[in-house]
């Protein structure tokens, strides 16, 4: 299943030419993943209580076309692959009408507070399996 997050490009997201600064696509994608978790009922405060954190391990990103100031953007997020301790997200940033600005595969790993990989909480893993 694909989760869709909608937002707009603001001045703070752009460079001096009014084009989205490349690193800000990562922020849009992070917000989309956070909203996806919230939509599933997963509160990041609960992660902390369970001694589980999610950290980004890797990003493979393709910048395709620039988004500009005040463009409406859509970030589509879906689980491409997952294991006991990781999730690979496929994320596409677009205008929602066929123009793609950016595509990425983001690997998030579940770690404990010592930053050692560990299994995701079973309730979350079950929800991911159910959703996918």
Secondary structure tally, helices? 3
Q: Tell how many strands the DSSP assignment holds.
A: 5
Quickly give the CATH architecture.
Answer: Roll
Number of domains: 1
Report the sheet-strand fraction: 35-45%
What are the main properties of this structure?
alpha+beta; elongated; 132 residues
Short description:
The protein has 132 residues and is α+β, with helices and mostly antiparallel strands. It has helices at 22-39, 44-49, 122-131, and strands at 3-8, 53-63, 72-82, 86-94, 100-111. Helices cover 26% and strands 37% of the residues.
Secondary structure: elements and pairs:
Layout lengths: L2 E6 L13 H18 L4 H6 L3 E11 L8 E11 L3 E9 L5 E12 L10 H10 L1
Antiparallel strand pairs: 1-3, 2-5, 3-4, 4-5
Verbal overview:
The longest helix is centred in the first third of the chain and has 18 residues, at 22-39. The protein has one domain: Hotdog Thioesterase (Thiol Ester Dehydrase, Chain A). With 132 residues, it is α+β, with helices and mostly antiparallel strands. The protein is built from 3 helices and 5 strands. The chain starts with a strand and ends with a helix. A 5-stranded antiparallel beta sheet has the order 1-3-4-5-2.
